[in-house]
Amino acid sequence: MNKEQLVIKWLNNDLTEEESKAFNALEDANLYKEIIEEAQRFNGNTHAKVESFDALDEKLVSKSNNSINWVKVVSSIAAIFIVGFALFTFLNKDQISSFQTTLAQNEVITLPDNSTVNLNELSELQYNNSKWDTNRSLDLSGEAFFDVEKGERFDVNTPFGIVSVLGTEFNVLSRDSIFKVSCYEGLVQVAYNNNEVKIPAGTEFSLALGKGIKSNIAIAEPYWLKNMSVFENASFEDVIIELEKQYNIEVQHPSDLNIQFTGAFEHDNLKNALKSISKPFNLTYKIDTNKVIITNGEN
Amino acid sequence: MSKSLHKDICDKIRFSKLYEKYAQSLSNILFYKYGELLNPSDKVQEAFIKLWENCSKIKPEAVKSYLYTTANNMMLNEVKHQKIVMKYQQVKPKDYTNESPEFVLRKKEFLKRFERALSELNEEERVAFILSKVDGKTHKEVAEILGITKKVAEHRIYGALNKLKAELEELNRK
Question: Residue ranges per domain, chain B?
């Protein structure tokens, strides 16, 4: 083994005992050892000591959110925009909501406070959506059934007067020359011609020729809600008008009938309805496509 | 090369482990290469900050070389014409039993020369030599760190030793 190999082995701390002796015998052995010994003074651990991780950590804080999931970020921004836009358009419409029903159609409307209105055929209802919270007031012409949620005053404006709700369920009929309010639950107040009438549950108020009449109702809710038209001492004329409206048909009938009708007819079966009307008066009927002819006497 | 369990190193705990594992030895290498005037430990910190910023892009197995390359490049940007200065530690590593005035004087002179000789060594030899004899790496480890073969590493270490010896020999003969 030459000197170089020996020294390299020594440098790698790889000497056998025998080789160690050979190395120590070298002329430069002591100097070599001294060089290695003194070299320890140049250790980087003292000259280039790194700071602890904590010191570095402080510099990292601001960068810690580097691994952002961009898909998430973009989608959440988009979501905020969409929700914001929806809210903006929703809150921004100072809108009058209006509903109208045509012949033989009725519609259930849910008001902003969750009160529901069941709008009968040929009726119109209008209210201000954005002011509903402070002013529960709506305009009605025609007929509607109200189920009002608890809360502030609830006004129904009709051409004949204002119906204010102090309670919950009531029916308003304000059509042609008829004005009738039936209260099924709670308390309703009607103001007409500078008069105020309170109508408790189970009571009905009707206005005829400027005079108000209170009477009792026995039924739990208006029949039209159950697809029935109900009459009490109604003229046959009125019954026929109602029938024509409900079925959208034309009815021919003898004009000289002077009878009062108390009863009901259903809305979904013309034959049954006609029977209900004609049987009690001994009348007969004939159905053409869109036309019904009612005649006197049995066939 | 072993595959890492984790996809990236963007985690404070894992990152701090890396720091503990690599920071000091990296700083040492920079010091051996470039001396202490260029603040090797600062460069190491900067390299780690850069690593953190890019943590999601760097695979765990590439971290070591990334750190080394980054810190080394930072050094090179500054080193340009700077002269390498190696400083010896002022504290004595060992107590001498017979400190005659001549001995103390000789030691002082020896260290002065050593310091100069070490600074004048070419970078490759100096780094290999100190990594091996001061940081206590085996020749194989030195070869791995510097990306050279074991033979080359041995050659450099041996070359460094001989050059140091040549500088200091004369003093020893006095």
Answer: 12-79, 101-173
Q: Does A36 touch chain B (CB under 8 A)?
A: yes
pTM to 2 decimals?
Answer: 0.43
- CATH 1.10.10.10 for the B101-173 domain, yes or no: yes
CA A84, chain centre distance (Å): 17
Report yes or no: A139 and A125 within 8 Å, Cβ to Cβ.
yes
Are A11 and B135 an interchain contact pair (Cβ–Cβ within 8 Å)?
no
**A80 in reach of chain B (CB within 8 A):** no
Chain segment A185-228, per-residue pLDDT in tens: 777 888 887 788 888 877 888 877 777 778 777 666 666 766 77
CATH class of the domain whose range is A227-296: alpha beta
Q: Are strands A136-147 and A154-158 parallel, antiparallel or unpaired?
A: parallel
Domain A99-216 CATH (choose: 2.60.120.1440, 3.30.420.40, 3.40.50.300, 3.30.460.10): 2.60.120.1440
Residues of B within 8 A of A53 (CB-CB) are 16, 19-20, 23
Tokens standing for A202?
A: 């189970």
Q: Which of B125, B126, B99, B109 is nearest to B168 (CA)?
A: B109
Write out chain A residues lying below 8 Å of B30, CB-based.
Answer: 44, 48
Express each pLDDT in A38-59 by its tens digit: 788 777 777 777 778 887 777 7
